[in-house]
Amino acid sequence: MKKAAAILVAAAVLATMAPAKANAGGGHGAGAFIAGIIGGTILGTALSNAYAYPAPVYAPPPRAYYPPEHIWVPGRYEARLERQWVPGHWEIEDYGRHPGDYDDDDDGPGYGARRVWIPGHFERVEVRVWIPGHWEERG
User: Fold this and answer.
1) Could you tell me the pTM of the whole model?
2) Nearest Cα to 135, choosing from 59, 73, 92?
3) Per-residue pLDDT tens for 58-98?
4) Cα dihedral 128, 129, 133, 138 sign
5) d(CA 82, CA 127)
6) Could you give the CA distance from residue 62 to residue 35 in angstroms, rounded to a whole number?
7) What is d(CA 98, CA 113) in angstroms, rounded to the nearest whole number?
8) Are strands 134-138 and 112-118 parallel, antiparallel or unpaired?
9) CA-CA distance, 75 to 136, in Å (whole number)?
């Protein structure tokens, strides 16, 4: 509908530019030129936007279904870090005047040893874990 209306408007504009008698008072030169530009713009816009969306393209369906290939992954060991609880325990701590200060004739530190309570805590420990073999899809 828009296309038909644009063509009618353009035809009306072009009809006004039909050659007329020349008169001494002036002509339709500038007005006709501007009307031609406007009509050409309207007609060009209507013709260039004739198809707002491209036509759909259909592809044929595939001829056969090929399921993904399955491959066997053998079992293996993996190293993982796990949190392991270390229970609280007593340790014997050497103490002296200065850390690492030993006398030449002594076998141990300067003053003696004392018992110190170490509270329970978690430590990260590397553990080897067996991953069993399994099938995987490839592709």
Assistant:
1) 0.33
2) 73
3) 888 888 888 889 999 999 999 999 999 999 999 998 876 66
4) negative
5) 7
6) 56
7) 13
8) unpaired
9) 13
